Amino acid sequence: MAAFTGRALHHVKKALAIAALAIERQLGPFQSGSDLSDMKALLDEIIENDTELAYDARAARIAVIGAPD
Fold first, then answer.
1. Cα distance between residue 56 and residue 16, in whole Å
2. Which class for 8: exposed (0-12), middle (13-18), buried (19 or more C-beta within 10 A)?
3. pLDDT (tens digit per residue) in 47-66
4. Phi and psi (nearest 5°) for 27?
5. In the prediction, which pLDDT does 13 show?
6. How much is the mean pLDDT over the chain?
7. I need a labelling partner for 59 at 20 to 30 A (CA). Which of 17, 31, 49, 69 fits?
8. How far apart are CA 49 and CA 38, in angstroms?
9. Is the pTM of this model over 0.90?
């Protein structure tokens, strides 16, 4: 697996959070539960604390929904 640091790691975390939220919002037969589970597991591995998780989750909501909440 590639090792990401700095700004690249920030973008990987944000992209995973955005993708996970997009998949969660896609209900029905086209929702990929296995991709969602894998992405959440990766996020659990690379996000260091709850504060960082909250930041990335907020950024994902803004990107996908257009609002932080």
1. 9
2. exposed
3. 999 999 999 999 999 999 99
4. -85, 160
5. 94
6. 92
7. 31
8. 19
9. no
